[in-house]
Amino acid sequence: xxxRLRSDIQCILDRDPAARxxxxxxxxxPGLHAIVLHRLSHWLWGHGMQWLGRFVSMLSRWxxxxxxxxxxRIGERVFFDHAMGVVVGETAEIGDGCTxxxxxxxxxxxxxxxxxxxxTLGRDVVVSAGAKVLGGFVVGDGAKIGSNAVVxxxxxxxxxxxxxxxxxxxxxEGTSADVTGQPSKFAAYGITLExxxxxxxxxxxxxxxxxxxxxxxxxxxxxxxxxxxxxxxxVPADAALKESFEAEKLTQLVGK
Length: 256
Prior knowledge:
A hairpin with a 4-residue loop joins strand 14 and strand 15. The model is unreliable at about 175-185 (pLDDT under 50). This protein is of the alpha/beta class and about 260 residues long. The protein folds into two domains: about 1-190, 3 Solenoid (UDP N-Acetylglucosamine Acyltransferase, domain 1); about 200-255, no CATH class. About 35% of the residues lie in helices and about 15% in strands.
């Protein structure tokens, strides 16, 4: 028990730069308190004391603002960061090393008892603030869920889900590792600028427009050089011989 507690404390110190000491984590982090109380309520639930397990989980909700059903399964080194308003359903499973932020719901879309109604999170999944993961599907290892995303279908390992309903952005390498083959660094709130499909699309359009203007300018310059008559006879007066498309400025506006 104490080994797991030390592991829980260390994962908070590793992922939260605001955590200054072990004592601060023990006394001031409701996410840690929720994990400890859930382990008690889950043990009671699994040993036939369902009412008492629910009562302990209710006390935990009062004290921490985090509602975890005693039937839910939570792995090691799970960090509920801030986490006010988090709801974790009865059949939800959270893998080792996951990080869950405030306002997250791991909910169900079915009312049938005895079925898998809530999601399963793999290892090292990051679920950002306000996200809703709804249904009895799997979110793969190392996946990231963007803030306020509504996820209603499986997310492959290493992929990113953003938007309402969530769009799945596959990992470039197909895993959560970076281009060097090493595990990717922890990304606070899960999402980077590279994970926004709209900004990626805008960046692609800007690059394409810039390239086309460059090619057109080269064509007019070639026509000008090859012309054997006066320039105004072969090259229109309004022809753009120089590029003026401000691709860099537009790229900064879309946040890339």
